[in-house]
Amino acid sequence: MTTAQSHTPQGCKIPVGILGVGHFAPPEIVTNQDLAKFVDTTDEWILSRTGIKARRRAASHQATSDLAYEAAVQALHNAGVEPRDLDLIIVATMTPDCPMPSTSCLVQHRLGATRAGGFDLNIACSGFVYALITGSQFVASGTYRRVLVVGADVMTRFMNWQDRTTCVLFGDGAGAVVLGPVAPGYGLLGVHLGINGAGGTNLTINAGGSRLPSWSDNIQRQDYYLQMVGPEVFRFAVQVMGEAALKALHSANLTPEQVTLFIPHQANARIIEAARKRLGLPLDRVFSNVEHYGNTSCGSVPLALSEACQQDRIHDDDLVVLVGFGGGLSWGSAAIRWGGLLRES
Ligand code: UT7
Predict the structure, then answer these.
(1) Is the model's pLDDT at 67 over the cut of 90?
(2) Domains defined along the chain, listed by start
């Protein structure tokens, strides 16, 4: 964590909070038993090493913007915000529909968010937390009042279905939040972002960019697939998850004892458990849905946040801590005081 910087938005004039959340996962469920039919694995191995029982797979006609759009519609509805009132749309994804146009433009067009600006943000599985913090700056500065932040990925398109060390881990999904001003003392209280490019080769998709364009000669099929040195990423994740949560909390003069719900990146139940112990949190203060979805990359944290809200696990005045980590290597965290919604004039 040598390159990390901690910041708190204390100097900001306008407190920024989450006005509504939503999520979407494609309906097709792929169980561990389904995978064991064509790759050398077992339900017992996957469950005991990762906590995953099933994941969702997008249909062949579905791309990331389709998942993002559905999650956005739900978040806007729950926030009571009309698409035309959006000022900005940020889509965090590492699996855009295509290199151009930006996924944010595709989502903006389908929503009819005619006044909004937008862009995509790619920092692998940490993307949603980065986009959340980026979007919050526009509201905090008074530049914009309504920002839609979506995290969405269709990871199954980038899996080598012969590689048991990766294909059992990932799934497809999306989550979204609408940001806006909230009452003083609420919203994003402390944040923390970090990257360490020295570890980047442990988690890669090598082809499809400017170094190995899709039309390159001698390109290996596996270069289009996600590749991971699992144990290295595991070691990194176990260290960074708890530390990142602590940095966001400390930057706002908060402590783990005050945390009501910890919502970490849903990559592996063992990583989540290590972070829970590091933070000294009881089991009921940690939210996990990794068993149902696997690792949905940028969808992971907002999908978990949205399900936690649906399950009535978050209430006004609660202190919620979000942590993302992933390729880069990268990580990000945010401590959020829930509630404080303002009556709009
Ligand atoms: O958002 C991206 C972040 N990514 C992550 O957070 C992933 C972090 N890494 C992990 O979660 C874990 O490293 C894995 C779940 C990927 C692997 O678990 P592990 O306990 O680190 O296992 P391992 O890689 O050390 O492999 C142990 C054994 C190996 O066999 P040998 O060499 O001991 O004979 C693997 O070949 O397990 C084997 N193995 C499998 N066996 C059955 C690996 N994958 C599988 C599999 N089914 N799917």
Answers:
(1) yes
(2) 1-345 (3.40.47.10)
